[in-house]
Amino acid sequence: MGTKVLITGEPGVGKTTVIKNLVQKLGERAIGFWTEEVRDKKTNKRVGFRIVTTEGKSKRFASKTFTSKNLVGSYGVNVKYFEELALPILQKAIDQARRDRRKVIVIDEIGKMELFSRPFRELVREIFYDDALNVVATIPIRDVHKLVSQIRRLPGVVHIHLTKDNREFMPDEILKLF
């Protein structure tokens, strides 16, 4: 029986930091991706987001300078750029995790920007509805999409509400679940 862990919390509380820390602790067992802010080198203001895979590939997929019909706030989302990295790593993660029960699929995050991708939504659904797979994922505090609300309500899912008070020890606590 696979373990499913959902991490939520207010924006900026440290969900991605916890995921990166967990990936480091899991080592070879972790496969998937996280998203991180891209900041302007001069002003240090956030100008976009990039996806980073556990294999070390990265690509900016959301930017204030991208022209896109898919907008989140002032960020244009290039769904194709996101899919170029997210879809292959998640497919690989599913295949490996079905062969090796110790693998943990990492998805940071199942949020508005990422959910513009239909194939991504389908892979997330496949992962969460497969009882054999281990997954740790981050979701927004609000149900930004019906998929988020569906996986949030799945039986057996471990919910972690990240706060400034618990974020330091949370990676070790999550590690114990796997």
From TrEMBL:
Keywords: ATP-binding, Hydrolase, Nucleotide-binding. Residues 1-165 form the AAA+ ATPase domain. The keyword Hydrolase applies. One of its GO terms (molecular function) is ATP binding. It comes from the Bacteria. Gene3D superfamilies: P-loop containing nucleotide triphosphate hydrolases. SUPFAM superfamilies: P-loop containing nucleoside triphosphate hydrolases (SSF52540). This is NTPase. PANTHER family: CANCER-RELATED NUCLEOSIDE-TRIPHOSPHATASE (PTHR43146). Pfam families: NTPase_1 (PF03266). The keyword Disulfide bond does not apply.
